[in-house]
């Protein structure tokens, strides 16, 4: 009785399973994960049996499928956090957005009330990341003048926003209490 192409393919694939499992264990370092990898390899092989050319190297074809799937799964897992019990998710907290939007609008309004030279110096140092020396060159003034403008701008912003200390930046006391639980 002559074997059909499907029977030949099935027999050739099944003959390679022990080698696939050994290779999977070397990749995964864990028997259960290796079994899952072999199973996925076999599923992909049978789903794509039409792309295999009889007479070519079955081992190489299957090992390539397995290696490629392992690498793809590894890249995906690298971006994920394993948290089956939800412990990590419980630690994630975010501040309500509406407070930040209101505070940002208040900040913009206060910033608009500063004299232009103070606002410019503060934005160049605080938002753009320039050094005092670089801001002095940009504004064509001495570095001491830049430092003075920035100090006055910070002091005036704190007055306009009703801030007495650095601890008052960010969420209010109630929101901080919730986030620190």
CATH class categorisation of the largest domain: Mainly Alpha
Mean pLDDT: 82
Share in helix: over 70%
Sequence stretches where pLDDT stays below 50 over 5 or more residues: none
Radius of gyration: 32 Å
Structural class: mainly alpha
* Structural domain tally: 2
Strand composition percent: under 5%
Task: Describe the protein's architecture and organization.
The protein is built from 9 helices and no strands. It is an all-alpha fold. The chain has 2 domains: 73 residues, RNA polymerase sigma factor, region 2, helix turn helix motif (Rna Polymerase Sigma Factor, Chain: A, Orthogonal Bundle); 75 residues, Orthogonal Bundle (Arc Repressor Mutant, subunit A). The longest helix is centred in the first third of the chain and has 24 residues. The model has no long low-confidence stretch (mean pLDDT 82).
